[in-house]
Amino acid sequence: MDTTDVEALFRAHEPRVFRFISRLVGRAESARDLTQEVFVRVAAGRMPALADGEALAWMYRVARNLALDHLRRTGRVTPVFPAEVPRPAAQDVRVEVQRALESLHELDRHVFLLREVAGLGYSEIAATCELTPDAVRSRIHRARLHLRGQLAAPISHRQHAPVTLKPRP
Amino acid sequence: MTEYEIISAFADHESVDPRRLGDALSDEEGRRYLVELLALRALIDETDETQAESVSRPSFAPGRGKSAWPTWMGAVAAALVLGLGSFAMGMQAGKQDARVTAVAEQRPPEPQRVIELREGIEWHQGTGGN
Protein backbone atom coordinates (compact mmCIF):
# COMPACT_ATOMS: atom_id res chain seq x y z
CA MET A 1 0.00 0.00 0.00
CA ASP A 2 1.65 3.25 -1.10
CA THR A 3 1.35 6.69 0.55
CA THR A 4 -1.55 7.78 -1.69
CA ASP A 5 -3.52 4.72 -0.64
CA VAL A 6 -2.76 5.40 3.01
CA GLU A 7 -4.02 8.96 2.70
CA ALA A 8 -7.13 7.76 0.83
CA LEU A 9 -7.79 5.25 3.59
CA PHE A 10 -7.33 8.02 6.14
CA ARG A 11 -9.78 10.34 4.43
CA ALA A 12 -12.39 7.68 3.68
CA HIS A 13 -12.55 6.12 7.12
CA GLU A 14 -11.66 8.81 9.60
CA PRO A 15 -15.27 9.74 10.58
CA ARG A 16 -16.28 6.12 10.97
CA VAL A 17 -13.18 5.20 12.98
CA PHE A 18 -13.92 8.19 15.20
CA ARG A 19 -17.54 7.13 15.71
CA PHE A 20 -16.53 3.54 16.40
CA ILE A 21 -13.93 4.54 19.00
CA SER A 22 -16.32 7.09 20.46
CA ARG A 23 -18.94 4.38 21.03
CA LEU A 24 -16.33 2.17 22.66
CA VAL A 25 -14.78 4.72 25.01
CA GLY A 26 -17.91 6.85 25.50
CA ARG A 27 -16.12 10.20 25.29
CA ALA A 28 -15.67 12.28 22.18
CA GLU A 29 -12.50 14.03 23.33
CA SER A 30 -10.73 10.75 24.10
CA ALA A 31 -12.04 9.29 20.83
CA ARG A 32 -10.62 12.26 18.95
CA ASP A 33 -7.14 11.67 20.39
CA LEU A 34 -7.32 7.94 19.82
CA THR A 35 -8.49 8.40 16.22
CA GLN A 36 -5.53 10.63 15.57
CA GLU A 37 -3.28 8.00 17.08
CA VAL A 38 -4.72 5.39 14.70
CA PHE A 39 -3.89 7.56 11.73
CA VAL A 40 -0.51 8.54 13.11
CA ARG A 41 0.29 4.83 13.15
CA VAL A 42 -1.07 4.42 9.63
CA ALA A 43 0.85 7.48 8.43
CA ALA A 44 4.03 6.44 10.21
CA GLY A 45 4.20 3.51 7.85
CA ARG A 46 3.53 0.95 10.54
CA MET A 47 0.82 -0.60 8.39
CA PRO A 48 2.08 -3.79 6.80
CA ALA A 49 1.69 -4.27 3.04
CA LEU A 50 -1.84 -5.65 2.72
CA ALA A 51 -4.69 -5.93 0.27
CA ASP A 52 -7.49 -3.35 0.59
CA GLY A 53 -9.88 -5.36 2.78
CA GLU A 54 -7.04 -6.53 4.99
CA ALA A 55 -5.71 -2.98 5.37
CA LEU A 56 -9.13 -1.88 6.58
CA ALA A 57 -9.26 -4.75 9.06
CA TRP A 58 -5.75 -3.89 10.25
CA MET A 59 -6.73 -0.26 10.78
CA TYR A 60 -9.85 -1.15 12.78
CA ARG A 61 -7.84 -3.68 14.78
CA VAL A 62 -5.48 -0.85 15.75
CA ALA A 63 -8.50 1.33 16.60
CA ARG A 64 -10.05 -1.38 18.73
CA ASN A 65 -6.81 -2.14 20.56
CA LEU A 66 -6.17 1.53 21.27
CA ALA A 67 -9.71 1.91 22.64
CA LEU A 68 -9.31 -1.18 24.83
CA ASP A 69 -5.92 0.05 26.12
CA HIS A 70 -7.50 3.42 26.89
CA LEU A 71 -10.35 1.79 28.83
CA ARG A 72 -7.91 -0.37 30.79
CA ARG A 73 -5.71 2.64 31.54
CA THR A 74 -8.54 4.88 32.65
CA GLY A 75 -10.50 2.06 34.27
CA ARG A 76 -13.73 3.52 32.89
CA VAL A 77 -16.64 1.10 33.12
CA THR A 78 -19.35 3.52 34.25
CA PRO A 79 -21.94 5.06 31.91
CA VAL A 80 -21.11 8.34 30.23
CA PHE A 81 -23.79 10.22 32.19
CA PRO A 82 -24.33 9.71 35.95
CA ALA A 83 -27.79 8.33 36.67
CA GLU A 84 -28.91 11.07 39.08
CA VAL A 85 -28.36 14.01 36.74
CA PRO A 86 -31.66 15.22 35.19
CA ARG A 87 -31.56 15.10 31.40
CA PRO A 88 -33.78 16.10 28.50
CA ALA A 89 -35.67 13.26 26.76
CA ALA A 90 -33.39 13.01 23.72
CA GLN A 91 -30.41 12.59 26.01
CA ASP A 92 -32.30 9.94 27.98
CA VAL A 93 -32.63 7.84 24.84
CA ARG A 94 -28.96 8.37 24.06
CA VAL A 95 -27.97 7.19 27.53
CA GLU A 96 -30.36 4.25 27.27
CA VAL A 97 -28.79 3.20 23.97
CA GLN A 98 -25.27 3.60 25.35
CA ARG A 99 -26.15 1.56 28.44
CA ALA A 100 -27.72 -1.15 26.32
CA LEU A 101 -24.58 -1.29 24.19
CA GLU A 102 -22.45 -1.50 27.32
CA SER A 103 -24.57 -4.40 28.58
CA LEU A 104 -23.52 -6.50 25.59
CA HIS A 105 -20.73 -9.04 25.85
CA GLU A 106 -17.55 -7.13 24.95
CA LEU A 107 -16.77 -9.01 21.75
CA ASP A 108 -20.42 -8.91 20.64
CA ARG A 109 -20.39 -5.14 21.20
CA HIS A 110 -17.27 -4.69 19.11
CA VAL A 111 -18.59 -6.86 16.30
CA PHE A 112 -21.95 -5.09 16.36
CA LEU A 113 -20.38 -1.61 16.32
CA LEU A 114 -17.97 -2.55 13.55
CA ARG A 115 -21.03 -3.44 11.51
CA GLU A 116 -23.43 -0.65 12.50
CA VAL A 117 -21.09 2.26 13.11
CA ALA A 118 -18.01 1.46 11.05
CA GLY A 119 -20.02 -0.18 8.28
CA LEU A 120 -17.69 -3.14 7.80
CA GLY A 121 -18.80 -6.33 6.07
CA TYR A 122 -18.77 -9.69 7.84
CA SER A 123 -15.46 -10.81 6.31
CA GLU A 124 -13.78 -7.51 7.28
CA ILE A 125 -15.14 -7.78 10.82
CA ALA A 126 -13.95 -11.38 10.95
CA ALA A 127 -10.43 -10.26 9.99
CA THR A 128 -10.54 -7.40 12.50
CA CYS A 129 -11.65 -9.53 15.43
CA GLU A 130 -9.95 -12.75 14.34
CA LEU A 131 -13.21 -14.67 14.02
CA THR A 132 -14.87 -16.60 11.21
CA PRO A 133 -17.56 -14.84 9.14
CA ASP A 134 -20.11 -17.35 10.50
CA ALA A 135 -19.16 -16.40 14.06
CA VAL A 136 -19.53 -12.73 13.14
CA ARG A 137 -23.00 -13.29 11.73
CA SER A 138 -24.01 -15.23 14.79
CA ARG A 139 -22.64 -12.59 17.20
CA ILE A 140 -24.29 -9.71 15.36
CA HIS A 141 -27.58 -11.52 15.44
CA ARG A 142 -27.19 -12.28 19.16
CA ALA A 143 -26.33 -8.63 19.86
CA ARG A 144 -29.44 -7.51 17.97
CA LEU A 145 -31.69 -9.85 19.90
CA HIS A 146 -30.22 -8.56 23.17
CA LEU A 147 -30.58 -4.91 22.16
CA ARG A 148 -34.09 -5.54 20.88
CA GLY A 149 -35.02 -6.67 24.39
CA GLN A 150 -33.13 -3.89 26.15
CA LEU A 151 -34.44 -1.11 23.92
CA ALA A 152 -37.99 -2.35 23.30
CA ALA A 153 -39.62 0.99 24.13
CA PRO A 154 -37.39 3.30 22.04
CA ILE A 155 -37.44 0.81 19.15
CA SER A 156 -41.22 0.71 19.27
CA HIS A 157 -41.33 4.51 19.34
CA ARG A 158 -38.81 4.76 16.50
CA GLN A 159 -41.04 2.64 14.25
CA HIS A 160 -43.38 5.60 13.82
CA ALA A 161 -40.69 7.36 11.77
CA PRO A 162 -39.51 6.19 8.33
CA VAL A 163 -36.69 3.65 8.12
CA THR A 164 -34.48 2.76 5.19
CA LEU A 165 -32.29 -0.11 4.20
CA LYS A 166 -29.26 2.12 3.76
CA PRO A 167 -26.65 1.14 1.22
CA ARG A 168 -23.45 -0.14 2.70
CA PRO A 169 -21.01 2.72 3.20
CA MET B 1 -28.23 -20.28 10.18
CA THR B 2 -31.59 -19.49 11.79
CA GLU B 3 -34.40 -17.62 10.04
CA TYR B 4 -33.63 -14.45 11.97
CA GLU B 5 -29.95 -14.72 11.15
CA ILE B 6 -30.83 -14.78 7.45
CA ILE B 7 -32.88 -11.61 7.84
CA SER B 8 -30.09 -10.03 9.85
CA ALA B 9 -27.48 -10.94 7.21
CA PHE B 10 -29.75 -9.66 4.42
CA ALA B 11 -30.13 -6.32 6.21
CA ASP B 12 -26.32 -6.18 6.40
CA HIS B 13 -26.01 -6.58 2.61
CA GLU B 14 -24.54 -10.05 2.92
CA SER B 15 -25.38 -12.79 0.42
CA VAL B 16 -28.22 -15.06 1.50
CA ASP B 17 -30.24 -17.87 -0.04
CA PRO B 18 -33.30 -16.12 -1.53
CA ARG B 19 -35.60 -19.05 -0.86
CA ARG B 20 -34.65 -19.18 2.80
CA LEU B 21 -35.02 -15.41 3.01
CA GLY B 22 -38.48 -15.71 1.45
CA ASP B 23 -39.41 -18.35 4.00
CA ALA B 24 -38.11 -16.19 6.84
CA LEU B 25 -40.07 -13.16 5.64
CA SER B 26 -43.25 -15.15 5.10
CA ASP B 27 -43.43 -15.45 8.86
CA GLU B 28 -45.01 -12.47 10.66
CA GLU B 29 -42.38 -12.62 13.42
CA GLY B 30 -39.66 -12.51 10.78
CA ARG B 31 -41.13 -9.40 9.18
CA ARG B 32 -41.46 -7.74 12.56
CA TYR B 33 -37.83 -8.61 13.31
CA LEU B 34 -36.72 -6.92 10.07
CA VAL B 35 -38.66 -3.75 10.88
CA GLU B 36 -37.31 -3.66 14.42
CA LEU B 37 -33.80 -4.28 13.19
CA LEU B 38 -34.04 -1.25 10.90
CA ALA B 39 -35.53 0.84 13.71
CA LEU B 40 -32.68 -0.24 16.00
CA ARG B 41 -30.18 0.77 13.34
CA ALA B 42 -31.83 4.19 12.99
CA LEU B 43 -31.81 4.56 16.76
CA ILE B 44 -28.10 3.79 16.99
CA ASP B 45 -27.46 6.26 14.20
CA GLU B 46 -29.61 9.05 15.65
CA THR B 47 -28.20 8.77 19.15
CA ASP B 48 -24.64 9.07 17.96
CA GLU B 49 -23.59 12.34 19.55
CA THR B 50 -20.42 12.41 17.51
CA GLN B 51 -22.36 12.22 14.23
CA ALA B 52 -21.98 15.89 13.44
CA GLU B 53 -18.47 16.09 14.79
CA SER B 54 -15.33 15.61 12.88
CA VAL B 55 -11.88 14.90 14.13
CA SER B 56 -9.56 17.85 13.72
CA ARG B 57 -7.09 15.81 11.82
CA PRO B 58 -3.45 16.62 11.27
CA SER B 59 -2.49 17.25 7.66
CA PHE B 60 0.19 14.62 7.74
CA ALA B 61 2.48 13.65 4.94
CA PRO B 62 2.11 9.90 4.63
CA GLY B 63 5.30 8.02 5.22
CA ARG B 64 6.99 10.80 7.09
CA GLY B 65 5.52 9.71 10.35
CA LYS B 66 4.28 11.23 13.55
CA SER B 67 7.04 13.77 13.98
CA ALA B 68 6.48 15.54 10.64
CA TRP B 69 3.39 17.48 11.73
CA PRO B 70 4.04 18.35 15.37
CA THR B 71 7.72 19.24 14.98
CA TRP B 72 7.54 21.96 12.37
CA MET B 73 4.21 23.27 13.61
CA GLY B 74 5.56 23.30 17.15
CA ALA B 75 8.64 25.18 16.00
CA VAL B 76 6.55 27.75 14.12
CA ALA B 77 4.23 28.18 17.10
CA ALA B 78 7.17 28.55 19.50
CA ALA B 79 8.83 31.11 17.22
CA LEU B 80 5.59 33.08 16.95
CA VAL B 81 5.03 33.07 20.69
CA LEU B 82 8.65 34.05 21.31
CA GLY B 83 8.53 36.79 18.69
CA LEU B 84 5.23 38.26 19.89
CA GLY B 85 6.36 37.97 23.51
CA SER B 86 9.60 39.80 22.81
CA PHE B 87 7.76 42.45 20.83
CA ALA B 88 5.25 42.97 23.65
CA MET B 89 8.03 43.14 26.26
CA GLY B 90 9.93 45.58 24.09
CA MET B 91 6.87 47.78 23.75
CA GLN B 92 6.30 47.65 27.50
CA ALA B 93 9.93 48.48 28.25
CA GLY B 94 9.82 51.34 25.75
CA LYS B 95 6.79 52.81 27.49
CA GLN B 96 8.53 52.55 30.88
CA ASP B 97 11.68 54.30 29.54
CA ALA B 98 9.58 57.06 28.06
CA ARG B 99 7.84 57.67 31.38
CA VAL B 100 11.15 57.76 33.29
CA THR B 101 12.65 60.20 30.77
CA ALA B 102 9.68 62.52 30.96
CA VAL B 103 9.88 62.71 34.76
CA ALA B 104 13.66 63.17 34.67
CA GLU B 105 13.40 66.11 32.28
CA GLN B 106 11.32 68.08 34.81
CA ARG B 107 14.17 68.08 37.42
CA PRO B 108 17.39 70.18 37.43
CA PRO B 109 20.52 68.27 36.52
CA GLU B 110 22.46 66.67 39.35
CA PRO B 111 25.64 68.68 40.43
CA GLN B 112 28.89 67.21 39.30
CA ARG B 113 31.02 69.11 41.91
CA VAL B 114 29.95 70.39 45.31
CA ILE B 115 31.83 73.37 46.93
CA GLU B 116 31.43 73.71 50.67
CA LEU B 117 31.68 77.24 52.13
CA ARG B 118 33.28 77.05 55.56
CA GLU B 119 34.33 79.93 57.83
CA GLY B 120 38.02 80.75 58.01
CA ILE B 121 38.83 79.30 54.66
CA GLU B 122 39.99 81.61 51.96
CA TRP B 123 38.10 80.42 48.92
CA HIS B 124 39.15 83.24 46.50
CA GLN B 125 41.37 82.09 43.70
CA GLY B 126 45.00 83.09 44.25
CA THR B 127 47.52 84.18 41.69
CA GLY B 128 49.32 81.57 39.75
CA GLY B 129 46.99 78.87 40.92
CA ASN B 130 44.44 77.08 38.90
Q: What are the defining features of this structure?
A:
heterodimer, A: 169 residues, mainly alpha, Rna Polymerase Sigma Factor, Chain: A, Arc Repressor Mutant, subunit A, 2 domains, 8 helices, 71% helix, B: 130 residues, 4 helices
3D architecture notes:
The complex is a heterodimer of chains A (169) and B (130). Chain A is mainly α. Chain A has eight helices and no strands. Chain A folds into two domains: 1-76, Rna Polymerase Sigma Factor, Chain: A (Orthogonal Bundle), CATH 1.10.1740.10; 87-158, Winged helix-like DNA-binding domain superfamily/Winged helix DNA-binding domain (Arc Repressor Mutant, subunit A), CATH 1.10.10.10. Chain B has a domain at 3-46. Chain B has helices at 3-11, 18-26, 28-46, 68-105. The longest helix of chain B is centred in the middle third of the chain and has 38 residues, at 68-105. The chains are: A mainly alpha (169), B mainly alpha (130).
Q: What share of the residues of chain B lie within helices?
A: 55-70%
CATH architecture descriptor name of the largest domain in chain A:
Orthogonal Bundle
- CATH fold name of the largest domain in chain A, please? Rna Polymerase Sigma Factor, Chain: A
What's the order of the H and E elements of chain A? HHHHHHHH
Brief characterization of the structure:
By secondary structure, chain A is mainly alpha-helical.
Outline the secondary-structure elements:
The complex is a heterodimer of chains A (169) and B (130).
Chain A (H helix, E strand, L loop, with lengths): L2 H23 L2 H16 L8 H23 L14 H14 L3 H11 L5 H8 L3 H18 L1 H7 L11
Chain B lengths: L2 H9 L6 H9 L1 H19 L21 H38 L25
Helix pairs in contact in B: 1-2, 1-3
